[in-house]
Write a structure and sequence with these properties.
homotetramer; 318 residues; alpha/beta; Rossmann fold; 9 strands
C-alpha cells in the first residue's frame, strides 16, 4: 500500500486534488514540493495545489503548475443560485490565472467527442461560447468593451484521423491567440465528484488521458502560448471503482491487508472486455453535461469580459 | 453465499439467464421449476429458459414464462453481417412467441427516456419502426401484405408525471392491439453483455426495474393483451460491479470467504451519493444504443411482415 | 378578390388574427360576429379576437371561441428581458382562460414531431415542462403549493400509425385531467410572425392543420375537457408566400388586377413537387424552436403555479 | 429580361447547371466559353459543364472549372437501391476528378453548422466518414489497401469567430493533404432539386455563399492543394421562389411582360425581415440531411478506397 502507482489504471484520476489524497493516504505524509492553500465560498471550497518541482511531478503523476479545484456538492441539483455562485468562483480563479489587459485574443478549445455523451463537455461549452473575434473588423464599436474571443471543437482522433494537438496548433498559427482555454471532460477517482467539481490548471491538458490512450499534450510547450485547462469529472473509470471497493472492504474485513497482484487480476477479470473505455457515470449523464457546460461557460464569459455589465453578458449567453 | 437475494441491488439483473447463473453458482444445483434449452447460430447462441412455477419465480426473482437469450459477442463490432444474422435469430424467436396469422395489430412500445442516453433504447427503436396501421384505411392495397403495426414512446414518469403503464393502457384501450412488443434498455450483471445480448420474453416488463424504482408492470394482467418484451443490456449497476469485484477477489485471496455485511457496507460507502442511478457503461454508449436499436428493429420488422420480400423491408427500414 | 377562400392552401394561416386581416383586406369591412380588443405591454401588443357565431366561423375558417395573439417583434432576438416580459403576458392571458382553483390537474400535450425540426415545438416544450402529478402521492408536502401537472408528447401519425387524438383521448381517460394545454408549431401567412407571435385559444387544435392533412381535432368535444391551445408560427407555407408575392406585385404593376386561376396555376407549377410540405422558415430554425419553447414553458409554468415564488419556479425550469 | 444578374439574390443558385439554364433562358442562346456533356445512369442523368474562360465566368457567376451535376429525382424516396446507384455514379465522377494513385492523403471538410438543420450537411458527412490516417502509424497492415483519409468539421464563423478558410488552412499546413474534399449544403433555384441533385466541382467553394454573406473561398488558390467540392441543395432562397412565381405568372397573364423594379420591390416588401436567411425547405429537412449525407459518404468512400472490397467498405460505413 506504500507504493501507489498513479499511472496505473486503478488509480487513474485527472484531478490533482485526488492524486494528492491518494499519495498522502498511502504515505500519511506531506508531499515534498507540493504546496496547498484552501478557501471557502458560499456553496463550497476552493483548493489551490502547486506542484513545484520534478520530484513532486513524479509522485503526483502530473506536470508542475497550479491546480485549482472548486468543490460544490450542490452543483448536482441544477439550482441557478448555486450555478451562479460557482460560476463566479470559477470566474475569479480564472481571472487570477489569466491576468488579462483587455486587448488579448482568447481561443476556447472544446476537447472531446460530441457523439459520445460522457465525453461531450468540451463541444457543449463551445456551443454556448460567446464569440466576438469576427466582430472586431466590421462592428468594432459594438464590441469595444469585449475581449476578442474565438472557439473551436476540434473533434477526437477516432473521428478526424488527426491528432487533436495538430489541429489546434494549425489554428493557433493562423489566429495567434494570446491564451488558450481548453475544456475537457475528466475522469475522477471518486463518484462524489461527478458533476460537482471543477478543476482549473495552467499546465495544459492531454486529451483522452482518462481513456488510457494519452494523446499529444496541449500546453505551452506544444502550442507556444499559455494553456489554461478547465475540466469537470463526468466519469470514474471502472477499474478505479473496482480498486476502491476492494480497499474499502479490506479495511473492514481483513484489517486492511490486501494483495496487489490479486487486485490487479480481479479487476482485469471482471472488467476485461471493454477495458479502458468502461466508465461509471450517472444514468442522467446528458443532464450532467448540459449543466456543467452552462456553468463553465458562464464562469469563462465573466472572466473574459470584465468590463461588460453582468446583465448584458447574461442576456447574451442564456 | 448460499442465500443470494436476487432482489438486492448487488445482484440486480434484468436477464433471466444471469439470474439462473447466480442462483446456480450459489447452490451448485439445478433449479427446480426452471427448464432450459440451448442452441447455436452462426454468430452465437440462443438459450431458452422457462420458469414454470411459483417456487421457481421466487428463487429467480422473475415472473413465470419464457425467456429467450440471444448471445452474440461480435455484435459489439458494428458488422452488418453479424447484425443481420442476429436480427434473423431474433426474428425467428419472436415469430415463435407471436404465432401471427397476419390479420393482427401489433403495438410497439419504446420504453425509456430519450433524454438519458443509456436509457434511450426504446424510443430509438420507435424512431426506426415501420408503422403501417394508418395506411390500412386510405391505402389498403399498398399494405395488403403487411401486418398492421403502430408504435409509441410513452416517456418516463419523471418527464410525464404519469405512470408509463397508465399511458400505455390508455392507448391500448383505443387501438385494441392483439399484442404489445415492449422494448427497454436492461441492466445486466456482467459487462460482457453490454450491447451483445438480447432477451426476449413473454412475461411483460417492469419499466425502470434496473433503476431500483420499480414501476407498474406492463404485462398481460395489466394490459389485457399478450406483452412480449425485448431488451438489450446497456448498463451494469455500479453495485453489481462492486459485488462482483469483491467476490472474485475473495475467491483468489481468502479462499472464497466473504463477509456479506461488510460487502453491503463497502458498496454503500463507495457508491452512496448517486445510488441506484450510478451505472457502468461504455464511453461509446451513444453508438451502442444506435446499433442495438437498429438490430432490434430489423428483427421485429422481419418477424411482423413475413409475407413481404426481405429486400422491400430492408429498403423501408434502412 | 372579394371572395377569399381561407381554406385554400394559398391563404392558409393558423392565426385568427391573420385570418381576420385577410378577410377584412378583401372586403374592407368589419366582420359580423367577430369582436376584438387590443392592449399593449412593454414589448408588444395583445389582441383578443372572439368568433361568436356560425356565420363568423365560416368566414374566418376557424371554430368559434377566443383567440389571443401576443405580438412581440423583439422576441426574435433571444433577449432574456423580452422573453420574461412575453412569458408574463402569456401567463396572464392563460390564467384568464384557465380560472384555476389550485386543485386541478393539467395535462400538457406537446404536439408535433421531434424528428422534423420546424415541427418540434410541442415536444420541446414537454422536455422543459415541470411535472408534479407523480409527486402528490409520495411527497405531498413538497408539492402542496403546486398544481398537479403532467405531460405527454404523443408523436405524429406518420411515426406512430395512430391518430394523435386517439392517443391523447386514451391518456385523458386514465389521467382525467381538468384541462388540456396543447402546444403546436403553427403556420402563419406573414414571415414577420415567425418566432415573434404567440396564439392562445380556447377552441382546441387540429394537429397538422398547417400541413394540408387535417387530423382529428383535439378539443372539448373530442376530449371531454377544456382544451387550451398555444402555438407559435415556425413556418409560412410556400404557397402563401407565392400568393403574397403575386398580390403585392399586382398592386404595384397592374393596379391590383389579378387573375385567380393563373395565380393558382402558377403556385402549382412552381411549388408542385413537395406541395403541402414545402415551407418558408429561417435557416436558424433550431434556435427559433429552442427560444420559443423556453418562452412558452415559462409562461405556462407561471400560470399553473401562482402560489409558488417566482424564483423557485425559475430555478426549477431554467 | 435580357440582362439577368446572377449575383442578385433573386437569381441566386449554387448550381452551375441552374445558372446555365437561367442565362440561356434569358438569351435563348448557347453561352460562349461554356461546354457541356450529358449522360444517363439507371436512376437519372449526369451533366458535365465546363466554364472555360473569364467571359464565361462572368456570365455564369461561377469560377472556371468543371461542374458535374447528378440528378436523380427518386433520391427523395429513401430507397437503398437508388441510393446505391447514385453513390456509384458519384464515386465514378469523383474518381475521374481525383486521379488517385493510392498513396495520397485526402482531407474531408464538412462545412456548415450542425446546430442549424438545413445547414448541417457537411458535419453530418464527417460524422459518417471512414477515417484511416491515424491508423497508418500504429496498424499499417490493417490499412494497407486503404487511402489515408482524415476529416474535420470546422464550424461556421458565427460559432467560432474564425474565418472557416483560416481554420482549414491551419489544418492543411499540419496535415499536408494531397487533396481536399469539401462538402456543403447548397441553395438551388428550383425546389425539385432539394435532396435530389448532387453537384461535384473542382473549383472549390465559398462557405455560406447561398446565405448572402460570402466568406473567404476554399480553393486551390487559398489552400495550396486541389479542392473538390460536393454539395446537395437543401434550400431555395425565399427571394428566388418569389421571383420564379412572378415570372411564371407574368408568362401566363401579361404575355411575359414584367417590371424588374416592381419585382425587386415586391420581394423586399414580402420577405424583408429575415432577408438572406429565409429559405424554402421541406418540413422533413432532418430526413433530407440524413439521407443526403449517407449517400455522399458512400460515394466518397468508394472513390477513395477502390482496392478495398465493396462489402468490407459497406460494413465499415453503414
Amino acid at each position: 500500500m506504500n507504493n501507489i502507482d498513479l499511472s496505473s489504471e486503478q488509480y487513474y484520476t485527472d484531478l490533482a486534488l485526488e492524486a494528492r489524497d491518494l499519495v498522502r493516504g498511502a504515505t500519511g505524509q506531506e508531499i515534498a514540493g507540493v504546496i496547498e492553500d484552501k478557501q471557502t465560498f458560499p456553496y463550497g471550497s476552493i483548493t489551490i495545489i502547486k506542484i513545484e518541482d520534478e520530484a513532486a511531478e513524479k509522485v503526483m503523476g502530473k506536470p508542475r503548475g497550479t491546480y485549482i479545484t472548486i468543490e460544490a456538492p450542490e452543483l448536482k441539483y441544477k439550482s441557478p443560485e448555486v450555478q451562479l455562485s460557482v460560476a463566479e468562483a470559477l470566474s475569479e480563479q480564472l481571472s487570477n490565472l489569466l491576468h488579462l489587459k483587455g486587448q488579448e485574443t482568447a481561443l476556447i478549445v472544446g476537447l472531446g467527442n460530441w457523439q459520445a455523451t460522457p465525453d461531450a463537455l468540451g463541444p457543449s461549452v463551445v456551443k454556448y461560447t460567446l464569440v466576438t473575434r469576427h466582430l472586431f473588423k466590421h462592428m468594432p464599436d459594438a464590441v469595444q468593451s469585449y475581449l476578442s474571443v474565438c472557439a473551436i471543437a476540434p473533434g477526437v482522433l477516432g473521428i478526424t484521423g488527426i491528432e487533436t494537438a495538430e489541429i489546434i496548433r494549425g489554428v493557433v498559427e493562423k489566429v495567434k491567440p494570446n491564451v488558450i482555454i481548453a475544456i475537457d471532460a475528466l475522469a475522477a477517482a471518486n463518484i462524489n465528484r461527478l458533476g460537482t467539481t471543477i478543476q482549473i490548471s495552467n499546465t495544459g491538458i492531454a486529451p483522452g488521458s482518462g481513456v488510457n490512450n494519452r494523446r499529444v499534450e496541449i500546453n505551452f510547450h506544444t502550442m507556444g502560448v499559455p494553456v489554461i485547462a478547465i475540466g469537470v469529472p463526468t466519469v470514474v473509470n471502472a477499474a478505479v471503482i473496482g480498486r476502491a471497493v476492494l480497499e474499502t472492504y479490506a479495511n473492514k474485513f481483513s484489517g486492511g491487508r490486501q494483495h496487489p497482484v490479486y487486485i490487479q487480476e480481479t479487476i482485469s477479470d471482471v472488467l476485461e472486455p471493454f477495458q479502458g473505455s468502461l466508465v461509471v457515470t450517472p444514468r442522467e449523464i446528458d443532464d450532467l453535461i448540459e449543466n456543467a457546460s452552462r456553468t463553465i461557460n458562464r464562469g469563462i464569459t465573466m472572466a473574459l469580459h470584465p468590463r461588460v455589465p453582468r446583465e448584458e453578458l447574461e442576456a447574451l449567453i442564456s
